[in-house]
From TrEMBL:
GO terms for biological process: methylation. This is DNA recombination-mediator protein A. GO terms for molecular function: methyltransferase activity. Keywords: Methyltransferase, S-adenosyl-L-methionine, Transferase.
Amino acid sequence: MSQSVEIPTLDTLAQELAAIQQTGSKRIALLGSRHVPMTHQNLIEMMSYALVLAGNRLMTSGATGTNAAAIKGAMRADPNLLTVILPQSLQQQPRESREQLQQVMHLVENPENDSLSLGEASALCNREIITRCQQLICFAFHDSHTLLQTCQEAEEQRKLVTLFYFD
């Protein structure tokens, strides 16, 4: 049985190389699973702290786990370089998230999605986030359907995508 191998075009390779070599600040989205061990959350927090300290603008959503760790690190480095886009209104967020989210200067709510399921609202939110970023860093499990779909959509938009798997 033969397997087809997708060979990147010269144009794709050139775009990826240019994105990697860009030395100025970037708009980086950091998204991931809610179900993250504490040690991983600490690493994500350090990564977001370092990215923001380097002058990058960080975007994420408001869930617990990966996104909460990204928010914590970015807030420590420079709260002005953090944008959090919620899938629904602030009132729809879990109580443990609201306290942290109320400290965010650039908070975008989507109350028009309050009637949708969290999964549907999250997919729309992630789409909005990737349209605003140049690069996506994602932490997921192999069965994280919404996150993996977001990565695929980002790649289709020719964004630089870095995907880390927890499993």
